[in-house]
Amino acid sequence: MPRLLRLPESLRRGAPRAFAFFALWLILHGGGRAGLAVGALTAIAASWLSLVLLRPGGRPVAIGALVRLALRFPGQSLLAGLDVARRALAPSLPLRPGLVPCPTRLAAGTGRDAFHAYLSLQPGTLPVVMRDEATLLVHALDLDQPVAAAVAAGEADFSRIRGNADG
Amino acid sequence: MSVLIDLFTLMAVGSGLLFFLAGTIGLLRFPDALSRLHALTKADNLGLGLIVLGLMPQAGSALGALKLLVIWLLALFAGAVASQMIARLVQGGRGCGRG
């Protein structure tokens, strides 16, 4: 793509982000002529900051895998909320909380941070901290549940977004 | 039709409030900080999601409904990231990497 390469790298990388930030501004703030100008400036500033803080990744995002994950999310969220509500409201307080060491293969970085945030919204799992480079300590409300298996399945699903078929 | 929509709103917002209540009860009853984080990240996020779902048909425009959805997503994002940071602090920052 010789034409794209002639553009400054930051512009090529930043333009999609600027459009996304501007769309977010329009949704949250609405239209209006004065608002549009402020929104455009805000979107440009936000894109610049995001390029500084979050450098563009190498591999493209697999949209199909991302959509599948997003479609499954409401159901998982419902299961997670029901599970917590059931335990919180039961008179006997059925909990067996504890930390479960889970093997993980994601390298340190934004992808891993995103996976941990995603995992904290899934039923029964709350990632706490990396014990070492290959082991994630996950907090579970019930140690009798198959926590490590759920984390492994989640990691496999999540890794497909970045195009790793085997996680 | 509008009665049905209102009924849907009542049911969704009502169940959302129940999940907020359950999350708050969990926050009070669960024995330790990490267990309490489960109550916050899971029950409350679902509660907010159900309230948003119930309010979307009442927003009056597609843009208004989209705005509600984006607010939920932003709250999810903030909740997930904040719970991560609190969990790490509770654990005393042990371990390595940016986790």
From TrEMBL, chain A:
Provenance organism: Ancylobacter radicis
Xref: InterPro entries: Cation_antiport_E
Short name of one Pfam family: MNHE
Record keywords: Cell membrane, Membrane, Transmembrane, Transmembrane helix
Coiled-coil residue windows: none
Topology with respect to the bilayer: Multi-pass membrane protein
Localization in the cell: Cell membrane
Name the record gives this protein: Na+/H+ antiporter subunit E
Family according to the record: Belongs to the CPA3 antiporters (TC 2.A.63) subunit E family.
From TrEMBL, chain B:
Highest taxon listed in the record's lineage: Bacteria
Membrane spanning residue stretches: 12-31, 69-90
UniProt entry keywords in alphabetical sequence: Membrane, Transmembrane, Transmembrane helix
Keyword Transmembrane helix listed: yes
Record carries keyword Signal: no
A Pfam family hit: PhaG_MnhG_YufB
PANTHER family documented for this protein: ANTIPORTER SUBUNIT MNHG2-RELATED
Protein name in UniProt: Monovalent cation/H(+) antiporter subunit G
Organism listed in the record: Ancylobacter radicis
Organism lineage string: Bacteria, Pseudomonadati, Pseudomonadota, Alphaproteobacteria, Hyphomicrobiales
